[in-house]
Amino acid sequence: MNESPTATLTADRIFTTGMRDQWHAICPSDFVERGGMRRITRLGEDWLLYRQSDGTVRMLADRCPHRGAPLSLGQHLGDRIACRYHGIEVDGGGTVVAVPGMPGCNLEGKQLVRSLPVREVAGAILAWFGIDPAAEPGPLELPGPLVDEDTAAFLCYAEWESPWRWAMENLLDPMHGAFLHRDSHTMFAGGTTARFRIRETDRGFFFEKTDQRGVNFDWVEFCRTGIDWVDLEIPYPPTAGPGGQFGIVGIGTPIDEHRTAVFFWRYRRVTGWERDVWQFLYRTKLEERHWHVLEQDRVMLEHMAADADQAENLYQHDLGVLRLRRLYRAQAQEQADKAEKLAAK
Questions:
Q1: Is residue 169 domain-shared with residue 318, that is, in the same domain?
Q2: How far is CA 23 from CA 8, 52, 120, 128, 137, in A?
Q3: Alpha-helical segments (H) within 155-202
Q4: What is the separation of C-alpha 140 from the centre of its chain, rounded to a whole number of angstroms?
Q5: pTM for the structure as a whole
Q6: Which SS3 state, helix, strand or coil, does residue 141 take?
Q7: What is d(CA 156, CA 2) in angstroms, rounded to the nearest whole number?
């Protein structure tokens, strides 16, 4: 499924498989053990993730530069991968370092495999998907709750059989909490009617209820800090342990046009012995309930028709969804124009 980095990036393809020129969450860190490798599809392309013997994660296009065989079927050699088909050895930067069948071959020393910049944070691997493979990655400001020393966070990861935009739109739709999740231990209270507004920030926007706060899923902030993510809070009863409000950092990464990798970091701002108490309660009591809520979202999105967004009748509660779609549509066209210019050079 690997494609040329620029030639096939139409606006429609970008809109369905994900924005480029930004960072995306790829998978949990423990998907790739030291000395291990894993084939993975993200943004409609096939990739090889492998962890070098020194612990560094590398991400390469899953295609040998010799005959196009999948490198993921190859042999892990510590700091490089040897293609199983003819033994071509490729390092983590995508450079051919050896051609065993013909030492000194002119392939050696050339960077012939696309390699993506990667980072690890809060138990997840992130990667930069640039339109121009030769350009340096853009800046990345990590979500505060994931790097704040006074915050304890747990990563919940799943893969849903639904388009990535629907997963993101679901997060920009707070009102569904009062209906779909009404039997949840945290979202049973509050009204089932509301008015919403969009409030701009220097990194994105809030979509929030104007007449209710701290009762249900009452607000969400969409953030663009080199990676797209959302932040939201769900009120917690005292029985859920010490600490402030229960927060969620959410990211939806396209696997392809029809599947999404979803990342939900559940967090609370809590320190000292209270952190230990909350972490214990989460693992022993709360985590199962949270997965139940995620399952409600997954089932709903996976059962929506493929053309569900083509036959809608939207109203005031959907302003956040509309804002997100327009933003991504405009960005997809800008990126397609950029890709076309690069391909023409």
A1: yes
A2: 20, 22, 12, 4, 8
A3: 164-171
A4: 14
A5: 0.93
A6: coil
A7: 28
Residues 65 and 156 both lie in one domain: no
* Tens digit of each residue's pLDDT (9 = 90 or more) over 188-238: 777 788 899 999 999 999 999 998 887 788 899 999 999 999 999 988 777
Place of tokens 């804002």: 323
Residue 216: partners with Cβ closer than 8 Å, 6 or more residues away: 174, 177, 178, 187, 189, 190, 234, 235
**CA pair distance 129, 118, nearest whole angstrom:** 10
Q: CATH number for the domain including 82? A: 2.102.10.10
- Residues 97 and 155 placed together within one structural domain of the fold: no
C-alpha 10/C-alpha 127 separation (Å) is 21
What are the Cα distances from residue 82, in Å, to 2, 39, 88, 110, 122? Answer: 19, 15, 5, 15, 31
Per-residue model confidence (pLDDT) at position 3: 45
Q: Which residue has the tokens 């997954």?
A: 298
Give tens-digit pLDDT for 71-117: 999 999 999 999 999 999 999 999 999 999 999 999 999 999 999 99
Asked whether residue 137 is domain-assigned, the answer is no
Of 296, 251, 86, give the one whose Cα is nearest residue 155. Answer: 251
- What CA–CA distance (Å, rounded) separates 270 from 151? 6
Question: Is residue 30 domain-resident?
Answer: yes
Domain shared by 105 and 247, yes or no? no
Instruction: Tell me which residues of the chain have a pLDDT lower than 50.
Output: 1-3
Residue span of the structural domain in which 33 resides: 22-129
Q: Is residue 286 part of a domain?
A: yes
Structure tokens at 309: 């967004």
Residues 181 and 308 in one domain: yes
Residue closest to 93 by CA, chosen among 50, 118, 58:
58
Element (H, E) at 233: strand 228-234
Number of domains in the chain: 2
Residue 37 phi, psi dihedral angles, 5° rounding:
-145, 160
Domain assignment of residue 312, yes or no = yes
CATH number, residue 226: 3.90.380.10
| Cα atoms in the Cβ-side hemisphere of radius 13 Å centred on 236 | 23
Burial of 33 (0-12, 13-18, 19+ CB in 10 A): exposed
